[in-house]
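Give me structure tokens for this 364-residue protein.
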Amino acid sequence: MSITYDSNYKTRKILLQYVPLDSLRALTRQLLRRTALPAEHADIIADALVTSELRNLQGQGQGVRRVRAYVERVASGDLNVHAPYEVVKESLCLALIDAHNGPGTVVAVRSMNLAVQKAKACGIGVVVVRHSTHFGSASYSASQALNHGCIGVSMTNAGPEMAPWGGIEPVLGTNPWAVAVPTGDREDDMPIILDMALTMAGKGMMGWLMRDRRRMPRTWAITKDGRETDDPAEAMDGTLLPIGDYKGYGLSLITDVLTGVLGGGAFGTQPYSNPAFQDVGHQFIAYDIDWFMDRQTFYRRMAEFIATIRNSRKRPGVEEILLPGELEWRRMQEKKQHGVPLDPDIYEDLRRLAAELDVAWPFT
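Here you go.
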């Protein structure tokens, strides 16, 4: 079924292909299981990609668009599917991990689970990872803490796409963060999830706007010679601008310190410079709520805080005040009920990949 998205999904010209969630999940899992990845790892990556597809807008860089990249990187040997998860050093509360170029999403899930384990002993657990690879949406690994009654924090460095404030040359990454906060123990209790790159947008979204024949905000990027622009085609050859001007630059720099520099891996211009050894650094933090107070007391306090925020006065023309991650939560519920809209280019790429790997195509 093909439908043109409404304005909430910010597309005007591109006809999107809606597919059932269960079929998309099964296809993604089957495609990744055709690779040399261990089945358990293939399933983790598949779940992460589909979860990102549910949360994200079209044009954002995560989701099932990355399935082919995983297949090709495994086939080429650029991803070490048998990498050891080496605990270089650890204490009751801390761990330093060498990922040995293993799949970043799997490393991230394992590291957040280790941080949770340490938080249950200490109240807080911190795991720093070096020599990893792209770990997908930061919210996926941060959210692993939720079912354990913990707050999860996930961050990573990335390849250079941002210039230092006042500069032109990219020396810092988008360096995304996510913080996942539970608001209850039931499945329908919406968590607060802050998931953000430290640039105003990514080049995936610029490419999407270019295809959709739209301009972009002048706050997103500068041209290669340092000029502001609203032309996404010009911006693709330029440098991304940070959130909050110099503040976002500062946050990106500190993220690189807390991941690459502190962990003993790559930083600045080095991550992703070698496709066969991306050398990405991560950090994961878990806070055990029960160490600080009874969990139900925390949830009551969160409910009071949320009510204060929602009931605060609104600016003219604003219908409601939303919480971090609430739009993504609503988007997930909508897609689960009505189907997952795919970029037509990604839909066709998945069809070709299924044929290449002799996987049955589930959509009509």
